[in-house]
Amino acid sequence: MLRRRPRPAWQVADFFAIEREAEVYLASVDACLAEPGVVRRLGVRPQATAENARSAMLSEANVGRALEPSREAQIQFRTLLEEGERLRRRRDYLRNGTHPATVLLCAVTMLTLLFAAFAPWSTALVLTSVPPLTAAAIWRHPVWRISVRLNLREWALVPRALLLVRRIRWAEAAWSRSLEENGVRPLVSRVVEALLGEDHDSLLLADSYDGLRSPRNPQYVVDSRVGRSLAGKITQLEGGGTIAVSGSRGAGKSTLLETCAGDAGLAVIMQAPATYSPYDFLLSLYVRTCEVYLVLHGQDLPEFIRLSPFRRAARTLFPAFRKGSLLLAFGAAAAALVVLGTAASTRALADRHHGAIRARAADVWDQYLADPVLDVWRGERIGTALLIALAGVLLWRLRRWMRWEVLRPRVAIGVMGAGALLALGSVGSLFFDDGIRAVVGKFDIVDDPLMLLVALAPLVALLYLPEFRTRGQTQVAFTALLAALALLFTRPLPQAVAADPDNPVRLAGLLAGILLYRAAARPPATPSPLVSACRDELYRLQTVQTASSVITAGAPQLMTAQTTSLSTLPPNFPELVADYRALLTRIAGEQHRLGQRVVIAIDEVDRLGSDTQALVFLSEIKGVFGVPHVHYLISVAEDVGASFVRRGLPHRGVTDSSLDDVVHVPPCTLEESKKILERRAPGLSEPFKVLTHALSGGVPRDLIRYGLRLDEIETKTRFVELTDIARQLILEELTETLSGFRTLLSKQRWTPRSSAILITFRNLVGQLPPPCPCGSPELRSALEQVAFQHLGRQLGEDAAAEVPDEARELMDEASAYVLFSVTLLDIFGTGDLARRRNEAAARGPAGELELLGQARQELEVSPYSARQLITSIRAAWQLPDERADRTAEVPTPRSGDCPRHPRVGRESGTAPQR
């Protein structure tokens, strides 16, 4: 019951006029606060609690903001509520004036109708006089007269009330949905962000990491400028061509090939073997192309198994027999029932028309066919016999007429139309049957009111009953509907219609029409010539076929036998290339006529070793390139792509004759990295996207790896603040990298004086594990000592001269990487990132966050150019340059755990709670 209530202090007169409106608003607020993304943010910081968020959503200002986008739906809902309230008060008034005698009169009337439906006509005549007499007696009393009027008016309001209840539910659902989507949910997000503080972006609160855990899943692939460039080049090379996709390892070349192959009509993706053999690779490509074509056309691949004939026959026949036996059992039973039900009518129909049809056939034979056929048979019409023979030859030749494939769909459409007409005509003949029309004409609805009541029951249920919300309610309603139909067929009129003698014939015609329609709609099972060709090629390439013959000569006492064996030899390399090009040309021509594209993607060519081996591989398989309407996409290393770009300078190489174009896949920009992480880890805030982009240098594979490291660190340590997670991630990565450098340095030749470098590295690596996110002074001193003093300043000139050149290069690379890591620690390991970022960007281009990823990319080119770029970044961010004390040594390795986080990094330890 709707009733007004005293408005709380947070309510405004125009917001909630009725209590139910406030209930809908509170339900929307609670639903939004219970969403996983919001629950994950609540409780991270002390002030960000569910109680505070709910109180903020109940403030006057926020209620107005939440209701404003859905004001029209609220007004419509309020209008229906007020109308329902008025209707309820009207029904209460009418119900209070109802006299018990009115209920008695209604009960007597209903019982009378039931007896009249099933009792004999004499009894029904007596019973039907009871309600009028009772009503007349009641009507003479003035109190009862008024009560009956009020009761009738109340009953008249029942359909309107039921319909209004449904309209109120629909309006409530529409307003609730609009309120939640357009008002409450966005406002809840802003309220929670306000409770988390201005630096809410520095919290690791991603909604999901499923996209990072499935790096090859195509649904997480984002559109990129390189993908659009490759698609444009494929479109330009409409007649086919060979395009190389070059880039560094992990740049996304494989994903790019798979994306382009997914848009093609027929795509074959092959992995280049590490130890390659051009013949074996081309043979595998040949087989793979045939298999893909067969699968594309819904054909089963042939199984080449080594079994005895009995087991092979058993494995082939038993599944077919099991499937066929099930179909045979149901089909035989269904056919027997249909034949039994329609046998009499069909036999009567055949007896009725058999004589006329036979007489007509005899007349046609005698008048038109008998004399010509007999004359030709006796040899009296030589010319006609010659024409008939030529017609037989022509008919045999027409079996290969290409137009049959074009006419077959039209014939199928005609047969489908005939089946539909036969089925519809069988049902429609009910309305033209004289017997049925006569029965319907004699029937009066007054004679059988129960049939009308049962027939209208489903319509009344659809109009007035509320919608079924559970499976049990739906089953009850369906059972009631079946019961109503069963009761309907117990009445005289439906029984008379169902007992028409021509109904079995109509049923047979309906079934025949459905069978014709289904048979014509089913596609033909005859394989195309290309399908047969691909299947034959698979047998030729993967089996050895042997034929034997036996010759017997001489007298019976001198029997001799000779056996000849014929075995097919595998094709040689030139023949294999020619056969593959011929088959691929036919496939590409068919796909081109269908408006589709054929793509052959050869991936992982860059793992063959050096660029020389890759070029040799391309030169040996380039014989299959250049097929019309076939696009080859080849994944190569940057060296091969560079050799194509500088073609003709100073001489031409194999890439000039093998490749038509090259698409270079550079590392992602910061914006592209943000799009990738937003698709794969929705809800990840921008500072963490920038951090993973800087560590990965924009390489997608490393970007995904560092994104998973964020999830791993959060699970292991329960850290959610950017400063803690950044220190943990950077120091873990620095530990692994310096351990790799120390392994490479251990392979160099050292002297007693120059081995101080190894001691410095040992002390630095000893300061790192387990990584401590608090930034201890000893660790900071060790990192600065390596980053700013180039490791060699502590050595004398004589000792520095004993350091090998290769070791010196490794030391410079390690020092530049440590400087890069220290820069990331200074930027992301310190709070108030947003303010410092704006200040750095205002000082010049070197303060842009994009340069952090470029600095990581530059480390792969040269440590000296990377150091110069990192120095300019530190200057823009106003980070300290070099240590004042250049003579200090790297502190000795740290013993024990961090005093502030004693168990960080241990999976079995208790991590700090957030």
Structure description:
β3 and β4 (560-567) form a beta hairpin. The chain is mainly alpha-helical and 914 residues long. The model is unreliable at 1-13, 648-655 and 903-914 (pLDDT under 50). Helix content is 65%, strand content 5%. Among the domains are: 19-197, no CATH class; 225-298 and 571-665, P-loop containing nucleotide triphosphate hydrolases (Rossmann fold, 3-Layer(aba) Sandwich), CATH 3.40.50; 670-876, no CATH class. It has a 5-stranded parallel beta sheet with strand order 2-5-6-1-7, with helices on both faces. Strands 3-4 form a two-stranded antiparallel sheet. The longest helix is centred in the middle third of the chain and has 70 residues, at 309-378.
Search tags:
914 residues, mainly alpha, Rossmann fold, 5-stranded parallel sheet, two-stranded antiparallel sheet, flat, disordered C terminus
